[in-house]
């Protein structure tokens, strides 16, 4: 296929530990090898994208680079029978946007086994309102509901105004669970609008964090932040409860003893959406397009174009965003 020029949000290393970004022209000839070339219609902003865009070498080793761990678009060229030109598809996880040119460019080229057909119940735009955040929330919900029913008590969601947290709240409410939420941001009714029963201020939640074990309050927890908040959540989980963990924005450390695990039988389950097996990946996307699809999905998103990604990256790194940021590739 002949070379196509396109627009991309490109991060460059200008000097040691000094990074800049701008929307520039790129070429499909410079994209990595892969069986499927996709014209990206929508992407979304995730915390990992902000790390990549700010030069975090634990996420992206080499620059210049185009971040964007999410992409939804239309197949332009395929070397495999599973996909054909014109197919609507989703790509999330794997190495997209980390060390492989990502969804903040109008084209990506990826291995065929990274690509998921767009489920019938979702538009390309809706799939990226969900994106990796929605998929991670779905993985967390799937693990939690295997052992906890709505009748067993409320579920706690931490980091609830963030992408994963807010979508986890919305999915759980749709499935009939009572949801409590922790947030460090001023409450403006956003979480109540998703159906959250009680919103707990982060500072008050952490007042008793040093105690070895706490009064049981929740049947399960979906944690998105790690650190003291995760430790306190585990200590506050009821007997045989399930706690899922998918993030470390607060801290990668877990200051806790074994008491919740050996006295109450609490289970701590790690969530890795990057390497989720394809059969489960497809099943969860089907759930997200049908029975788990949040009722107010469009109300959870702010829409931006490529030129405005830089501002949103600064905000997400400062913890100032809520809900989801959809990137319209134009």
Word description of this protein:
This protein has 330 residues and is of the alpha/beta class. It has two domains: 5-118 and 297-328, Quinone Oxidoreductase, Chain A, domain 1 (Alpha-Beta Complex); 132-270, NAD(P)-binding Rossmann-like Domain (Rossmann fold), CATH 3.40.50. The protein contains nine helices and 15 strands. The protein has helices at 47-53, 124-145, 163-174, 190-193, 202-205, 227-235, 259-263, 278-289, 309-317, and strands at residues 5-15, 18-27, 36-44, 70-78, 88-92, 107-110, 115-117, 155-157, 179-183, 198-201, 218-223, 237-245, 267-270, 301-304, 324-328. The strands form three sheets. Strands 3, 4, 5, 6, 7, 14 and 15 form a seven-stranded mixed beta sheet that branches. Helix 3 links the parallel strand 8 and strand 9 (179-183). Helix 2 (124-145) packs across helix 8.
Mean pLDDT: 95
Show unreliable segments.
Answer: none
CATH superfamily of the largest domain: Medium-chain alcohol dehydrogenases, catalytic domain
Shape: globular
Element order: H for helix, E for strand? EEEHEEEEHEHEHEHEHEHEHEHE
Largest sheet: 7 strands, mixed
Q: Give Rg in angstroms.
A: 20 Å
How many discrete domains? 2
Percent helix: 25-40%
SSE class: alpha/beta
